[in-house]
Amino acid sequence: MQSSSLTTQHLDIRQLGINPNHWYVVARSTEVQTQPLGVTLWNHPIVLYRDDEGAVHALEDRCPHRQVKLSHGRVTGELLECAYHGWRFKSSGECADVPYLADNQKLPNCKIRKYPVQEQDGFIWLFPGDINAIEGKHCVPLQPMGVPEWEHLNYIATVSVIECNAHYSYLIENLMDMYHGHLHQDWQAWTDAVLEDIQEETNRVDAHYQAQSYYKIDKIWSISQLFFPALRRLHPEPLDVSYVYPHWVSTLGKDFKIYCLLCPVSETATRAYLIHFTSLNAFWRLHKLPVWFRRFVKDSLLGSAQKLLDGLVRQDVQMIEEEQQAYLTHPERRSYELNRALVSVQRLIKSQLQQRD
Ligand code: FES
Ligand SMILES: [Fe+2]
After folding, report:
1. Does ligand 1 come within 6 angstroms of the Cβ of 98?
2. Is the separation of the CB atoms in 229 and 236 below 8 Å?
3. pTM metric for this prediction
4. Which one, out of 2, 13, 98, 324, has a CA that is 20 to 30 A from the CA of 315?
5. What tens digit of pLDDT does each residue of 76-122 get?
6. Which residue, among 14, 9, 8, has the nearest Cα to 330 in the 3D structure?
């Protein structure tokens, strides 16, 4: 144990793994239908599917018969059927049926790994560690971080998918470093960030910046600032960013909340969901209207910041991938970091790895 902790300490951050004892986000709810979906979480292929009752299951994406991917198969009732010879599997991972089993043959005693999975707030959360071992150490069960604004009628959501060929640490550092507003120019939501304070805890880093925000959502037409940059007026707002391992959360004043839900794929690939919420909390008159109407407003405005969010993601991904490429070509080159929030981020990544060890 001691030796692996020491190894972690001395390993380069860009080669570090993940602490599997957390809930990761592997898909949006809408992506998982009865047709199986193959995903990868830290080099582990996983198949997600919905049974005929609508419940989501997650199994190792590997047929124990010939080692092909179960995600090529289909769901029949509550069983997952392999595409190759039609063996069927229960959600527990046990083989339930072989279509050509002879009368004198027994079902093969093979079992594939089942992962704890939860569908919550529009996303599929998966626990890749050993949940029984972890819950034995805690009095309360570990729960997914969750996204409470997802169902809340006062928040309008936009989701952008981040696919980047880079280690997850580059993405988290980008998200925690508010001095990179410079990159975004026309898409920029904030400017003139100044880091004021950092708090570090076992599972999180909170960095508090003061910044100037371009948006204020206090009039019914405020949402149009997302489309017409000329309507924006700079004003001071607190800008808080948090690495809540393994995810990221941010608030800009009272009007915006952004989440980044992570699915690290490998040492050089990361998938993540960026969720931008615009708050309607300032419109108290709206809150007195019937719930069905408020739901209609929320649903109609879903994705209203899509162009903005996708634009930000494109710019960030380009920089993050270049950092990764530069590292792969010249791992010996040292970078010069002035933002101490990033030192805290790297410390948290390393300490999470030691907890895993
Ligand atoms: S490989 Fe899956 S049933 Fe044969
Ligand atoms: Fe950015």
Report:
1. no
2. no
3. 0.91
4. 13
5. 999 999 999 999 999 999 999 999 999 899 999 999 999 999 999 99
6. 14
Atom of ligand 1 nearest to the CA of 87: 3
Map out the domains of the chain as residue ranges: 24-137, 148-356
Q: Does domain 148-356 have CATH number 3.40.50.10320?
A: no
Tokens for 1, please give them.
């144990």
- Taking the C-alpha atoms of residue 282 and residue 296, their distance in angstroms, rounded to an integer, is 18
Q: Which residues have C-beta within 8 Å of that of residue 187, sequence separation ≥ 6?
A: 308, 311, 312, 315
Of 30, 25, 184, 216, the residue nearest 118 (C-alpha)? 25
Residues present in the chain in total: 357
Q: Which amino acid is located at 93 in the chain?
A: G
Q: Is 66 touching ligand 1 by the criterion CB < 6 Å?
A: yes
Residue 94 DSSP one-character state: B
